[in-house]
Amino acid sequence: MGTSATENPSETLHLLHRAAAGDQDVWASLLMQHRQRLRCMIALRMDRRLQGRVDPSDVLQDAYLHASMKLGDYLKNPAIPFFLWLRSITGQRLTILHRHHLGVLGRHAGRELSLYQGALPEASSAALAAHLLGRDTRPSEAAQRAERAIQLQEALNSLEPIDREILALRHFEELSNAEAAHLLDIRESAASKRYTRALKHLKDVLST
Fold first, then answer.
1. Structure pTM?
2. CA dihedral over 67, 128, 50, 145, signed as positive or negative
3. How far apart, in whole angstroms, are the C-alpha atoms of residue 127 and residue 113?
4. Could you give the count of Cα atoms lying within 13 Å of 97 in the half-sphere of its Cβ?
5. Of residues 22, 43, 75, the one with CA closest to residue 172
């Protein structure tokens, strides 16, 4: 899944050094490779009270600006893959946006549990359920969709927080197993098992 899972790290670093030296075309090309996955991350983790008020593209442009400013520092010690570094900056900008608009207010209690206590803004089981169900809002199916959303949300809430997060990373953000394992600081084999187990649990719950 995803472009950064198959990219050549040495080639990427070479291109990043060209971008740092002023090659704007190379920089734009590198950013474009990861645009879709970053937009998915923003859409999943943006607080629902900001949806419709804040354009994910604006968040991304802000992140790109700060990434450009910090590129030199990253190249001094590229300890993590470029995509994960870019994702962390995007998450930081989204966190600042949340604080600006919402202060320290958290999400409402109830069925809407956070996925995982990580460095990025929390995604919720409600947000993940909505994204898994898609955007079909035909009036004839509204009641069925609402019931399905609650069922899916409760199934997500029954998972361990780390398993909810790995579903978000793998299924929606389209991170590779290696990328998800790196972010969660677990072995790749453990990440793969957790992802498979979480998917099976959801299927079992929703098939009853």
1. 0.79
2. positive
3. 10
4. 26
5. 43
